[in-house]
Structures are given as C-alpha cells and as structure tokens.
Amino acid sequence: MKELFKTFLVGMAHRNTIAKHSQGLDRYLGVLCMLSAACLGIAIFTPIATIPEYRGLEGTFAILDALLVLFKANRLPDAAVLGLTFILWPVYSLSVAFDVWYKYPVQEDKFLKASGRLRFFGRIWYLIAISTVGMVYIVQVEAGGVVHLPVYALILSVILQKLCFTRMLGMVNRIQFDEVDD
Predict the structure, then answer these.
(1) pLDDT tens digits, residue range 1-14?
(2) Is 164 helix (H, G, I), strand (E, B) or coil?
(3) Please, is 159 exposed, middle or buried when counting C-beta atoms within 10 Å of its C-beta (0-12, 13-18, 19+)?
(4) HSE (CB half, 13 Å, CA atoms) of 93?
C-alpha cells in the first residue's frame, strides 16, 4: 500500500520527473492538481447560478449548460468566451501541470517546452480569477440572479492552480539551476 501511495505522489519509478525532485509538502503538488481538476469538474457540470433572464440564459444552469444554450441561441461570441475562459483554458493549464509533474523526464526537450507553457499559465492565471469574479458580478448585479455553491469550487480550483504553478515553477528553476551548476 505504501508503494502504491508513493507512486500516486511521485509517479512511476523509471521516470525522472520533477515529482521525483520534490521534498516535504511539495510532494503533494500532484494531489493538489487533482483536487483542482475535481473542483473544476464540479464547477463545470453542476448548477452554478440561477438567473431570471439574461442574454438568452434563463433558470438554473451549469457552465456547460449555459454554453450549449448560447450555441443554440446562435450567440457564438458569448459561447466562445464562456467556453475558452471557464473550460478550455483551465483544462489545458491543468493538463500542462500534470505533464510537467508526472509525465516528462527532466532531461527531455518536452519538459523544457512544457515548463515554458507552465510559466506562461503561472503568469496569467489571474485572467481566470478576474473572469470568475466578473461572472459572479454579472449574475448577481446585472442579471439579478443568485450564484450557487459550485462557483466557490471554481474559485478554489483557480487558487489551487496558482499554488501548484508557483511551487512547480520554483522547482523547475531549482532543477535547471542545479543542472547549470553541474
């Protein structure tokens, strides 16, 4: 059981990933990424708000439901912004974090490319945070609606993403600095 838990935390034994270089609480970054992904899934698939009527949306809806309603109503710009901001962007950034943590060995070129993408997402994560706050504002003030508990799961997902990106980038910088010293 202990070996299974260790594999869960740091990945497969034959790969020299960044997870193998983690120490202390940093060993749990993979678990935090998974928790962030779970919170994002909750926010995407469960009802997030109830509004009387706003831009073709009416009633209680989840982010995915709102996306489908906007597509059917031929409001493609609104659907594109919603889909990119709250579904594609966070899913892609989390997949890059998983790749850096579990998949790519430190000495490969793929690791350097993925860590560059991770650095990019770590720098502009606030766009998702601002968009989340903007969505809450629009639902409550402009549309006269009510947000539900899953919006806090979305906020928690964004916060956990930033924590993971920051800690992973620190580890990437240390590993690259150590390689330069050797």
Answers:
(1) 566 656 656 566 66
(2) helix
(3) middle
(4) 31
**pTM, rounded to two decimals:** 0.82
Q: Token pair 């720098």 is at which residue?
A: 123
The SS3 assignment for 147 reads strand
Q: What is the pLDDT of residues 105-130, one digit of tens each?
A: 888 888 888 888 888 887 877 777 78
Rounded Cα distance between 161 and 148, Å, is 21
Q: Report d(CA 97, CA 89) in Å as an integer.
A: 12
As a whole number of angstroms, the distance between CA 23 and CA 19 comes to: 9
131: its two tokens: 């968009």
C-alpha pair distances (Å), 173 with each of 22, 30, 112, 116, 177: 13, 18, 11, 11, 6
Handedness of CA 167, 168, 172, 175 (dihedral sign): positive
Structure tokens at 1: 């059981």
Interior CA angle at 58 toward 61 and 36, to 5°?
20
CA separation for the pair 175, 182 (Å, rounded): 11
Does the pLDDT of residue 50 top 70, yes or no? yes
- Residue 113 dihedral angles phi and psi, to the nearest 5°: -65, -45
